[in-house]
Design a protein that fits this description.
Strands 2-1-3-7-10-11 form a 6-stranded mixed β-sheet, sandwiched between helices. The protein is α/β, with parallel strands linked by helices. It starts with 10 loop residues before the first helix and ends with a strand. 48% of the residues are buried. The chain has 9 helices and 11 strands. The longest helix is centred in the last third of the chain and has 15 residues.
Amino acid sequence: AAFQDNNGKYLIEKHTISTAPSIQVLDLLHQRKITRNQEKFVPTTMTDDELLIVGNPTAPKTPLKEGNGCKVVSLPGAEKEAKNIARIFNTQTLTGDAATETTIVNKMSQARIIHLATMTFSNDCKTNNSPGVIALASSNQDDGWLRTSEIQNLNLKADLVVLSGCETALGRITGDGVIGLSRSFFAAGADSVIGSLWDIPDMPTATLMTEFHAKLSKNTDKAGALRQAMLETMKKHPNPRDWAGFTLVGLL
């Protein structure tokens, strides 16, 4: 999105961008969509059960590993982001202590849109051979760490998963695409994932994601909504670091 031409124009100013995870995976996503035969993806008609909006969960009670390498901090921008999105769709959001791993996993199976504005960790926090982990609130039934190995075993019907955390579109590069958090949601049944390419800033991301869902709620296609959100955020936060970090992977 932040590539510039000789005139200084960004690529996103001229084109709508989406990414194929790999040719084989893209074909599998299309075939699965046909087999599933869901109703058309229309965000404005979705029920509360079909919308899962999560922001700024309380840190898990047990550290992922010793030391400060995987420390979870509060993200006020992520909480603002989730509440803004919930207002757009006239639904509820899960934040703080309510955003437990068990509650979120149980709600995921029915959700058509899953938006997770949380802390995420990738390479430096590998555990159990999992290339990524999402930090959620913990309960008596879980440890609060949702790993890729757990995600890929879920049964999802989501049209869209938004991973509004740091480096959620990264992973191990293979001949069949990038293996990481985003890939685990495809394996679980999601049609498309929006993930990040670097450590995203808290408050500008809240602006970007609020704009994205506002456009999406007007039945704009996912890639088009992300493009429009970037262009709007660019006006307030001109540094590409603040608006160009997200990419749509999968079906449009």
